[in-house]
């Protein structure tokens, strides 16, 4: 029926809603045993992509498969994939346990599983309480419990941290890590990089329905060169010493400091010492992932001419620090701006095919798949109830 791999493959996925291109030629793979963050600002196309993966929206073009099959062909999908989508609705007068019992019966799952999942999500003590009195965070946990009922191989979560307090977010992070340790697969969307940064093995960053970056976060971080800001007693003497040491990317800033690109603070301090130049301050810049994320995804509303929230967002006051220009790729303009060092992953420019992480095969459609045969899942059939509604 399916290949049992737990792999998610999205290839050249496109969704057009009338004049709106919600998702455009999107491709990525989520390997079993890993957590992939699916990131993008509001309206980037995350929910639409997840709904296509779950058979709730029919793609205009392209393929989304789990275990090598489109959702409709999974047989008993609730046993393969559990999903939490936005806007979950619950019967307010039903208790948490009764809610789960209804779904357990529909999925042909034994009743004992209900108490197991309640404990798993930390709702054991609230099992007999009516859902109408639940907080947003408790509802998120109940939605997750529903997704876990079928003991699925794959979890697909759309903004699951919404409504969770910091303790809840930390709990979710641990839970997802443990879930993948047994070789299972997690795809989790968020519009906040910081929310998933500590959880994910790789990220797919999208903007305006297109892939902007696909790969490990660490590669994205490393693709940005570090800079050292140094305050020497004699800037000119230090510039020549640095140049003699082969450091050619040195900039004299208006405040008298030097910005040395592609070096670490220790190297610069050693060179200053050897050149007998006193140093009054030295500081190595950290690559700010949040800033990179903003850069990769900025321009969404500006480009679409539809910003409902006023002018495009600016970096916070004080960023970048006074007195120097950001190095290439650090700020100011949307999109990738610099060639990457050898061996580093490129950020994918709009309209280009997405990057495939090193060592992974290019994504290919499953054998025998024909897009014409892709049918939308009728509501309430095939165990998809509880996955968050229909297109
Ligand atoms: N059923 C629909 N009909 C028309 N346009 C739609 C429909 N669903 C989504 N869109 C549009 O597609 C684009 C992508 O929306 P989508 O909800 O997938 O983004 P998102 O990244 O999940 O955003 P958010 O984080 O705000 O939920 C948006 O411009 C949205 O208005």
Automatic annotation (TrEMBL):
Q: Which GO terms describe its molecular function?
A: ATP binding; ATP hydrolysis activity
Q: Cross-referenced InterPro entries, in alphabetical order?
A: AAA+_ATPase, ABC_transporter-like_ATP-bd, ABC_transporter-like_CS, P-loop_NTPase
Provide the protein name.
ABC transporter ATP-binding protein
Domain annotation ABC transporter: ranges: 8-233
> According to the UniProt record, where is the region Disordered?
305-391
Q: Which organism is it from?
A: Longimycelium tulufanense
UniProt KW Lyase keyword = no
Q: Where is the composition biased (Gly residues)?
A: 380-391
What does the similarity note say? Belongs to the ABC transporter superfamily.
Q: Which PANTHER family match?
A: ABC TRANSPORTER, ATP-BINDING PROTEIN
What the entry lists under Gene3D superfamilies is as follows: P-loop containing nucleotide triphosphate hydrolases (3.40.50.300)
Listed Pro residues bias regions: 309-329, 338-368
SMART domains from the entry?
AAA (SM00382)
Q: Where is the composition biased (Low complexity)?
A: 369-379
A Pfam family annotated for this chain is ABC_tran
């Amino acid at each position: 029926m399916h290949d049992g791999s737990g792999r998610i493959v999205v290839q050249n996925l496109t969704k057009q809603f009338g004049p709106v291109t919600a998702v455009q030629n999107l491709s990525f793979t989520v390997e079993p045993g890993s957590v992939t963050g699916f990131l993008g600002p509001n309206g980037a196309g995350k929910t639409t992509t997840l709904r296509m993966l779950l058979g709730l929206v029919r793609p205009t073009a392209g393929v989304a498969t789990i275990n090598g099959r489109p959702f409709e062909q999974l047989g008993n999908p609730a046993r393969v994939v559990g999903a939490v989508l936005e806007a979950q609705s619950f019967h307010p007068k039903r208790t948490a346990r009764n809610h789960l019992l209804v779904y357990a019966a529909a999925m042909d799952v034994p009743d004992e599983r209900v108490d197991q999942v309640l404990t798993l999500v930390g709702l054991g003590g609230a099992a007999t309480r009516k859902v109408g009195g639940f907080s947003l965070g408790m509802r998120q946990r109940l939605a997750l419990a529903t997704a876990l009922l079928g003991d699925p191989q794959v979890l697909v979560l759309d903004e699951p941290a919404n409504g969770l307090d910091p303790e809840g977010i930390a709990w979710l992070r641990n839970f997802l890590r443990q879930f993948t340790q047994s070789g299972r697969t997690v795809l989790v969307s968020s519009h906040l990089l910081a929310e998933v940064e500590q959880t994910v093995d790789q990220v797919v960053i999208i903007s305006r329905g297109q892939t902007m970056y696909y790969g490990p976060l660490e590669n994205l971080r490393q693709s940005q060169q570090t800079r050292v800001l140094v305050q020497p007693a004699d800037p000119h003497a230090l510039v020549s010493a640095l140049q003699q040491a082969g450091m050619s990317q040195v900039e004299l800033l208006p405040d008298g400091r030097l910005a040395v690109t592609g070096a670490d603070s220790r190297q610069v301090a050693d060179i200053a010492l050897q050149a007998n130049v006193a140093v009054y301050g030295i500081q190595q810049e950290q690559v700010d992932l949040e800033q990179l994320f903003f850069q990769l995804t900025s321009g969404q509303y500006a480009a679409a001419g539809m910003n409902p929230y006023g002018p495009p967002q600016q970096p916070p006051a004080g960023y970048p620090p006074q007195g120097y220009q950001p190095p290439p790729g650090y700020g100011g303009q949307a999109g990738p701006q610099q060639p990457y060092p050898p061996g580093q992953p490129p950020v994918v420019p709009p309209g280009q095919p997405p990057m495939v992480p090193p060592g992974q095969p290019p994504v290919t459609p499953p054998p025998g798949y024909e897009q014409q045969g892709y049918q939308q899942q009728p509501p309430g059939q095939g165990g998809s109830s509880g996955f968050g509604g229909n297109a």
